[in-house]
Amino acid sequence: MKNLEIKKISGFTTAQEIPALLDREGVEFQPIDTVNWPEYPYKPEVKFRVAHTGDYILIHYTVTEASVRAVAPHDGGRVWEDACCEFFLQPETGEPVYYNFECNCAGTLLLNCGRVGDRHPAPENIMQQVLRWASLGREPFEERIGTCSWQLALAIPAAAVFNHSVKDFSGLHMRANFYKCGDLLQTPHFLSWNPIQLPKPCFHCPEFFGNIHFGE
């Protein structure tokens, strides 16, 4: 099981500024490169880095892949069928409830909470509080074939952990996994940060989350 220390930083104002801010703070990238299912061997180049400000989790993804797609027309849609990066968070170890933050390459977001098999969408006003920047722009588009490099940045407020009373991430221990998928891309793929030992593709498996610790 992987472990990740999440540095506390300051100076955040907008999602678009997150890559430069993490550069200045020297926050290192982590690969999302585990191919868990041999029948889906394609492995685009994907990495992420993450920091926090106390009241926000800041995530920056970079991706290079053979095609991109952003068909989901609005938040709450089927973003996992597009070129999609995902962050699953379990606030309390030993508790079955977790959150899935799934965002396609146009910054369209899906946010649910609950147990495996019993998921519930976030209220719209909560989803709108998750700030996003996408290097490919924010408008939907059909699949574009050909090598493409793109970036995505998310600022996830404590309020987005909407079924828990988190006010400040500082010092907290949680469990999480980071994913890259594209179910309906020309070459489907299902990559994870922490390995998954299941017979077929499934990201809703908190038993295979890694450990994360938010710095003071």
Furnish the topology, listing elements before pairings.
Elements: E1 3-8, H1 18-24, E2 30-31, E3 34-35, E4 45-52, E5 56-70, E6 84-90, E7 98-104, E8 109-115, E9 118-121, H2 124-127, E10 131-134, E11 141-157, E12 173-181, E13 190-192, E14 210-214
Parallel strand pairs: 1-4, 1-14
Antiparallel strand pairs: 2-4, 3-13, 4-5, 5-11, 6-7, 6-12, 7-8, 8-9, 10-11, 12-13, 12-14
Describe the protein's architecture and organization.
- Helices cover 5% and strands 44% of the residues.
- It is mainly beta and 216 residues long.
- The chain has a single domain, classed as Immunoglobulin-like, CATH 2.60.40.
- One of its GO terms (molecular function) is carbohydrate binding.
- This is Carbohydrate-binding domain-containing protein.
- Residues 17-214 form the Carbohydrate-binding domain.
- Pfam families: CBM9_2 (PF16011).
Order of helices and strands: EHEEEEEEEEHEEEEE
Q: What proportion of the residues is helical, as a percent range?
A: under 10%
- What radius of gyration results from the CA coordinates? 16 Å
Please state the structural category. Answer: mainly beta
CATH topology: Immunoglobulin-like
Quick one: CATH class? Mainly Beta
Mean of pLDDT: 97
Largest sheet: number of strands, sense, barrel closure: 14 strands, mixed
What count of domains describes the coordinates? 1
Estimated share of beta-strand residues: 35-45%
Calculate the terminal CA-CA distance, rounded to whole Å.
23 Å
How many E strands? 14
Judging by the overall fold, what is the CATH architecture? Sandwich
Flag low-confidence runs.
none
Number of helices: 2
Shape: globular
Domain Carbohydrate-binding: 17-214
Protein name: Carbohydrate-binding domain-containing protein
GO molecular function, one term: carbohydrate binding
InterPro entries: Carb-bd_dom_fam9
